[in-house]
Write a sequence for this structure.
């Protein structure tokens, strides 16, 4: 079975945890950087833009240093452990912001469903460039305020996960007309929530004050509560579950105030199709009873309103145009764990899931 690897990262200081990550993921970081370097250059050229990646990475790091200096220390440790320049690691962690500067489209990316209850449960498809299909891993991280487990890309501190306090984070990219570089990278915002938040309220407070310069929606899930926090350079907004307790997120703003600056949905309106199909599917439905039912819920290949929730890359195509569902993630906040299937939900089976659990030590 083609399973993804797990990195167990520890250390008594941010620098030590970073060094541990860099040492363990050295080869993967080199492969990931080669792909991102090509993506940044190719997509900028396609949109007739010139970008200075080292300078953009340093700007992102400076914004992070003002908000959470320990995250910069951790990235410095990654660079030392991986034996690469610091700006390379800063660029990987700011890849969303740098791609926004390059004018990159994001067709086909990420669909999330969550059902509140006893306990709350849910998960998502993670869609990204097919060229990066082997550029990610599962992880457990200990040594800070809260240990956490999750999924991330080589060299990036965090993405999707759950911590030992039972705070889970799911992750969808949005697009706003003001997106770019200059704020704290959204992946580092997720890292701070997973490493620090001891409660639902704490997580929302951290997100409300995150000075981002690119847009995302982080869905916070605890055993009894859930909310999607939409972040953008124009501000933030909290989206609550519907009357049945469901949250459905794709890649457009749901909060009216932020939707006024919507960019993603105007460029790639298929996000509305995915949201419509999933909202219809969950209507009157109980929470998915395990990863298998979640995978069934997320499997859609365009037969309903053209919605490709489960995304498959086409043959051929230029770098940056080949999208695929790289992972399917089922979140179990009560158990402090995630189950992850490598690939789209349509190929998941009872034996294809790998679980990681958050621990304090």
């Amino acid at each position: 079975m083609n399973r993804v690897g797990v990195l167990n990262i520890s250390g008594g200081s941010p620098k030590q945890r970073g060094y541990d990550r860099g040492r363990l993921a050295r080869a993967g970081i080199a492969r990931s950087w080669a792909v991102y370097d090509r993506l940044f250059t190719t997509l900028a050229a396609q949109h007739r833009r010139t970008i200075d990646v080292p300078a953009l990475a340093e700007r992102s790091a400076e914004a992070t240093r003002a908000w959470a200096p320990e995250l910069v220390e951790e990235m410095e440790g990654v660079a030392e452990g991986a034996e690469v320049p610091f700006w390379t690691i800063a660029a990987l962690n700011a890849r969303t912001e740098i791609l926004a500067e390059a004018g990159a489209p994001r067709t086909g990316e990420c669909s999330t469903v969550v059902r509140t209850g006893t306990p709350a449960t849910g998960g998502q498809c993670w869609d990204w460039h097919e060229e990066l299909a082997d550029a990610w891993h599962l992880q457990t991280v200990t040594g800070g305020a809260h240990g956490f487990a999750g999924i991330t890309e080589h060299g990036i501190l965090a993405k999707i996960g759950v911590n030992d306090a039972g705070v889970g984070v799911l992750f969808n990219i949005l697009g706003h007309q003001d997106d770019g570089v200059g704020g704290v990278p959204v992946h580092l915002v997720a890292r701070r929530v997973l490493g620090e938040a001891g409660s639902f309220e704490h997580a929302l407070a951290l997100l409300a004050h995150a000075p981002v310069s690119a847009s995302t929606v982080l869905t916070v899930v605890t055993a009894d509560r859930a909310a999607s926090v939409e972040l953008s350079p124009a501000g933030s907004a909290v989206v609550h579950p519907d009357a049945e307790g469901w949250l459905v997120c794709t890649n457009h703003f749901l909060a009216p105030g932020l939707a006024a600056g919507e960019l993603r949905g105007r460029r790639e309106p298929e996000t509305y199709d995915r949201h419509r199909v999933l909202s219809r599917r969950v209507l009157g439905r109980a929470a998915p009873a395990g990863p298998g039912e979640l995978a069934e819920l997320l499997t859609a290949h365009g037969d309903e309103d053209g919605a490709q929730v489960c995304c498959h890359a086409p043959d051929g195509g230029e770098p940056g145009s080949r999208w695929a569902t790289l992972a399917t993630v089922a979140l179990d906040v009560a158990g402090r764990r995630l189950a992850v299937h490598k690939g789209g939900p349509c190929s998941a089976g009872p034996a294809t899931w790998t679980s990681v659990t958050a621990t304090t030590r």
